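=== RUN LOG ===
request id: a7f3
mode: sequence -> structure
chains: 1
length: 976
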Amino acid sequence: MTFRTPGFSRRLGTGRTRLLLPVLVALAALVVAYLLFTAIWTDVLWYRSVGFSSVFTTQLWARIGLFVGSGLLMALVVGANMVIAYRLRPPYRLPSVEQQGLDRYRTAVHPHRRLIGIAVVTVLALMTGSSMSGQWPVWLAFLNRTKFGQTDPQFDKDISFYVFTYPFVRLVLGFLFATIILSLLVALVVHYLYGGLRLQGPGDKASPPAKVHLSVLVGLFLLLKAVAYWFDRYGLANSERGVVSGAGYTDVNAVLPAKTILAVIAVICAVLFLVNIWRRGMMLPGVGLTLMVVAAILIGGVYPLLIQQFQVRPDELAKERQYLQRTIEATRRAFGVDRTQVASYGARPEADPGRLGSEAEQLTGVRLLDPNVVGETFQQLQQGRNFYRFSDVLDVDRYRIDGQTRDAVVAVRELSGAPAGQQSWVKDRLVYTHGYGFVSGYGERLAANGTPEWVTKDMPVTGALRIDRPQIYFGERSNSYSIVGGRGQQELDYPDDSPAGQKNTTYSGRGGVPVDGFFNRLLFATKFSDRNILLSGAINDGARILYNRTPREMVQRVAPWLTLDGDPYPAVVNGRILWILDGYTISNGYPYSERISLGDATRDTVTDTRSAVARQADDHVNYMRNSIKATVDAYDGTVRLYQWDESDPVARTWMKVFDNTVQPKSSIPPELMEHFRYPQDMFKVQRQVLARYHVTQPDAFYGAQGFWEVPQDPTAQGRKQPPYYLSLKLPGDQAPQFSLTTVFNPRGRPNLAAFMAVDSTPGPNYGRIRILELPRNSLVQGPGQIQNAFEADTAVKDVLFKLRQGGTRTVPGNLLTIPFAGGLLYIEPMYAQAAGGSEQEPYPVLRQVLVAFGDKVAAGTTLDQALAQLFKTEVTPAPGGGTPPPPGDDGDGGDLSGDIRQALADAQRYFKAGQDALAKNPPDWAAYGEAQKGLQDALNRLAQAQQAANQQNQQNRPSTPSPTPTPGTPSPTPTD
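=== RESULT ===
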């Protein structure tokens, strides 16, 4: 039997505890290191898979350099001041109550002073390094800056100084200020703790060494403040003080000299503090510091306020006129609208019915298929299986078919996951791996039943376009990872009518990262927190893992300096499906240009209500260019960046930072070039700019009387109307141009002010912005008024009423505005959609086309029919000055009006019965079916009664007798 003394047990327990703590710390450090390595290495593997390794390494080394450099410098400076303050401690401290209290703290701190000091500087270094490493874009852009070749009107400096150099200077000054302030705080604490400073007792409150140390630090702070004041002068180029963006009258005549004076005063104060090294006493530094504070308040604050209040405001326009002109010119140039062509239009619209009809016959290519509405139609007619999905918002593109370029609404059939109730890890990750197919419909024509007339459709894909690789491994819905390829791997390609019920495929692309080895499987099992990746035996040799595979995410990773358009769109190019994305370079440092919220400018009906189009962040920018076109191959994930705006200095700067990642514009394949279009978010920002900056005279701009605004969407109140892609012919054009269009209302008014379009087809006129400005005294109806006119017109209202019977609801499509015959023609497709989950038509189908020109509106089942109704000649009045009798009121035709009234009453009764059946819980589907049959019978009787009334009315209408020709007189010759 072994006996242990209590003391021995306690010592054994203490030893185990002391041993366990380092082991746990070491294990925790290993786990953190492994997780960090996994995150970094899987990113490296992804960048290698897409061929952009240099982008990752450039960012990584820049981050490491800034982290280590700034953190180390902060630690050295703060640590050095801590050591200096400790070594300058007085050898003897006068006894006092204050010192007795501090002795207790010194007793606790002094034995651990090195550990405490190391901990403090380490924490400060880590915090500083983490903050500075996130500023790598500012540092790299400064090192690789490219001149704009344009100077600002106030300081005559190249624009690149404000875009690249000034932000870097402010970053450096911010770091140095933080370093000096933290050093000063640490020095104060150490000096106070060890007696160099005291708050109580007679005599000097600081020892001579402490005075010297603190004077040097304050002097350095003031020297930095002088430098900051000097550079603040250049910051006035983006001042928001006055009525303009940029330096206004007060900034130039009060703030600018004030900053210079304050810089000089700060230097003088710094010298006084430095002189205090050799002098005893704090009188001179105190006087200097007081002077500094008073000058900052009076010269830097009060004086500009007085100038603004008593000189500028009483005569604001005269004082600010030249600065307004600067802002107008800079803003138009910074947002690329300085070459906008504005023309007067609509003063004399055509009124002759014959000429209007002739113009209507030449109107072709009007897109009636609305990409914002027919997503459900594509879904119902082309989904195939319930595990496929189309986007809510589809896209508009052009294709050359049968020798003609045709607008098309396009979409891809993406995978939404394994079928409900059949999920398993193997199915989710190895079988259901990709979408399939490219579906498109003609934009300007539809099938007889109101559904799209397909350009391409079905599985396998059939139609007018050659598609060699219809698989969608990289798409907007590809948010999770998939494991594809490998020997013997069988992935679902698409369902078919074979005995197996499906066609299988094996991925053979080069995208993705190999995952058939133990090490990579371990890494990815850790990354995705999924042990099945490591343990599954279904992963074969040659398998690859696909992740980070949505087009926007992929391009954002390989080009982190770009702001991407919210709406990538698919295109078929040389038999492959490519995602096309527009990349923007932005800045908020362009001098005198007004800053605009990117989020507010691009927000409209589509971004507010649909998830398929990404919202832009609420960044405030005052420079924007569409500099890059990017593509992502939907099959193998190949990413390519093409330079588009070759004159953009911001893009050229980043192309130097990330060398050989962007291909020149000359390398764009012609087949791909045909599918590039003007980007929507860029256009939305430009239209917001032009709503005000189409006014180029300072006096008129100051009065703000001619400002416009983007109208609200008439079908979604409270949200701005989105722009529309449309092929149209503007005045002066020889042929229709694929364009992106919008309209403007006068500010605060519902009528129309202007029409705006930008040429969207790559070529010599690409990007040309044209505005047709209506006469200011003209009251041309705006979109909201036109929508009200459709609903208020008797004939159109009757058509819409019939569409809305039987629980069917109408869905208005895009309200297109087209310059036509010297005026503006409105065209709105009206879709009908069955309600209550009907399996016959649960998706929108085109039923009517509504049109308006001037003060007239009409409707028809086709555009041609609607235009014929709109531009027909006036009906000849009946003899005697009366009007033709309405159907059913003819005295000789029987009681047709009674038949119509009875049919309407029956229709209303059956409709109510159907709604009552649906309102029950659960719904009475049998009663609902009977009500629908009765409703259909009533509608048939209503149509027959109306047709009979119309025929009888024509038979009973008196005809004008032809005059009897006099013998020898030639008969009248018919005229046109």
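=== NOTES ===
The CA atoms of residues 903 and 938 lie 5 Å apart.
The two ends are 131 Å apart (CA to CA).
=== END ===
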